[in-house]
Records
---
Amino acid sequence: PVLVVDFGAQYAQLIARRVREAGVYSEIVPHGVTAEEIKARKPSGIVLSGGPSSVYEEGAPALDPGILELGVPVLGICYGFQVMAQQLGGTVAHTGRREYGSTAVRLSAEAAGEDAPLVAGQPGDQVVWMSHGDSVSEAPEGFRVLASSDSTPVAAFASDERRMYGVQWHPEVKHSVHGQQVIESFLHDAAGIPADWNPGNVIAEQVERIRAQVGDARVICGLSGGVDSAVAAALVQRAVGDRLTCVFVDHGLLREGEAEQVERDYVAATGVNLVVVDAVDVFLDALEGVSDPETKRKIIGREFIRAFERAAADVVEQAKEEGGKVGFLVQGTLYPDVVESGGGSGTANIKSHHNVGGLPEDLEFALVEPLRTLFKDEVRAIGRELGLPEVIVGRQPFPGPGLGIRIVGSVTRDRLATLRRADAIVREELSAAGLDGEIWQCPVVLLADVRSVGVQGDGRTYGHPIVLRPVSSEDAMTADWTRVPYDLLAKVSNRITNEVAEVNRVVLDVTSKPPGTIEWE
Ligand code: XMP
């Protein structure tokens, strides 16, 4: 792999993604990693990420100097570039001139040649994204300077002999116009790493792994209707076929068409064994009269586990009758979850604490997590490669508790029907307007405890408002409200008030996150 050394801040994940977009498998390692540990991983390249520190700060994250002696090609970015400069005998100076944001850099005459690493074939003047206080004022001996900016004499350097390269700017950020070219040039031209990481290879490799892990045991997987569990299950199904059983708990809180997409389209595409648990009555009974958001979430979570365990116990029982054993549970854990929880070996056993529905007390499943090394966009690419329907693979994030937390007030069948209709109209119109790529997600919320006066036809109405919450985001941690065109909002509003009984007002949520969360509950 290419190892991305994480110096803090949010850049390492983005770099790892860009490396993979270049067709090269990458993994993130913490900056405390030793040269020995790196060597043991046999990396084909190393990228040192940016970070929020100054190399002069007390306790600034350092790099084991042995790492630069391994003979592995290295690309230093921003803080990583400065650490590299310092360790190799260059000079990093407090210039007192901070560069932040889009900045012009000029390639040096030496870099203008066709064979210049990192910047070959790029225009002499270009715009890059900078974010730094200190600057490299002198390149280490034997390095040539590739670029400079008004306030940074050494904005990029290279030593072909040592196969070491660095840029002060952030090539992983889209605002650096030729950023991806810099990354690809380092990987393919300078380090000579081929572009052979692609969905087809990932599938083949994971199928092998799953077979090796599972042996001849049986496997169970809960499907939520979301992308991750759908792709994880499809991969496992590719590996073990009929020995996988999927369980889909229909809690009645999904959006229009979603249960059918799982029960019909997903099964048609994969041929997976599916057990559907109709738990609608159980969920709605348990939610009756409850309007506190946290209580609703807890009830939905609890009922979900109960329903899933009951179904799992049946699957285990049936397997026994057939002389088989269910030993594994599939989970759709993604790489960002793994990185953010500090790694871990993936051998966790989940133990069932709820002794319900005849589930044996000591029932333990080992986890199969075929998406543990993948980013979300890769999961989607693999899902497409596996032939999953676009409505599932392209689905925007949707919370586990579903429409249950999009009704402000208690949840009833009628209210669910109202919200489902309004939500379907919104999704249809946003998609038709081609906004799916721009919008991260658009919760549609029914204010069931609020009424307002309206006039429809010849009469006065006293109906409920629907809230539209379109947001743009990179990762759901922060978000901004999407500037949806007025004409489109007008159309959506018209359709909802005309087509959905009980709704006489449509309002737009124009709050960023923070302070507002994306969901209303
Ligand atoms: P908030 O409302 O916290 O949401 O800004 C951030 C993202 O998380 C989703 N979300 C959930 N997803 N189970 C989930 O699987 C949940 O309980 C849940 N609550 C919120 C939300 O849709 C948004 O994408």
Note: The pocket of xanthosine-5'-monophosphate is lined by residues 397, 399-401, 441, 476, 513, 517-519 (CB under 6 Å).
---
Amino acid sequence: PTLLAIESSCDDTSAAVIRGGKVLANIVATQEVHKQYGGVVPELASRAHQQNIIPVVTQALLTAKITKKELDAVAFTRGPGLLGALLVGCSFAKAFALGLQIPLIEVNHMQAHILAHFIDEPKPAFPFLCLTVSGGHTQIVLVKDYLNMQILGQTTDDAVGEAFDKSAKLVGLDYPGGPLLDQLAATGNPDRFTFPIVSMPGYDYSFSGIKTAVLYFLRDNKTQNPNFIAENLPDICASIQNALIQTLLKKLKLAAKETGIREIAIAGGVSANSGLRRAMQEGATRYNWNVYIPDFQYCTDNAAMIAMVAHYKFLQGDFANQYVSPDPRYKV
Ligand code: ATP
Ligand code: FE
């Protein structure tokens, strides 16, 4: 099938066209308006989606060299995400489907992050474990089939992406600080400072403690030396990043051991983190894992991954009707 997919769950407006599971276009407009506020402002996100959606869809169709008449269905992100942001993509897709008299497909954003692994080779074999790490989620998912997934463990408070962004903010970096902290960590010593690795029962996570630990650590050191951050920035970043990665890896290793699964994938925005990517490669050598890491462009939010889920839903004839509405807390 030839499909158009739309992603508008947070602060990226994206449209993709795929044909037979091959991505022909994947256009992403990242909203710059939130930077000055140090975080995503939901109302501004919805407005920016409204402004971006038509140009982004037009560009995707142009790039793919596909006309509207050639489309077999239109897909959109139903959730999880910000209600007002999701509404834009959902309403647009409904109108588009109605106007062209083609089926509508609703997609779960977290499933889409995982199916980003089926865009390019190499593809994981079922069943595999996926560590989904993003701005709003931290999950270990047992992926049994394209559309059959079970969450084994997840964060009980903050997501790891949030922990990256909040820690980055505390050391004075711009929003979103995750990628900046990653860059600075590259030249730092990860063993210089110690931050807590919180252990939760089973495969669950907790990341709210680390930002408090970072806050007190910086406060205590700044009273002794006002220039503490400036003089030690790479080491601080590398040490924070190390604690976050070790926390992630601990439960992933446990899940791999207890399920006996060696097909291991990572997905979501934080899978762009170079330290985590390196740690996964080490896991491959040490534990004999087959590790799958998505291409950078498919780690953070994009419509190509939404289109991938839509492709498999189309094959199953799993369509939505015009009464479908966004679900901000949509579960996998
Ligand atoms: P969700 O998918 O849970 O709804 P989201 O869509 O907002 O949340 P993504 O776009 O998947 O999240 O990921 C964004 C997050 O990834 C941000 O927290 C960002 O800081 C983080 N991130 C991106 N690149 C890196 C990096 N190199 N190192 C660490 N964190 C990163
Ligand atoms: Fe996301």
Note: The mean pLDDT is 97.
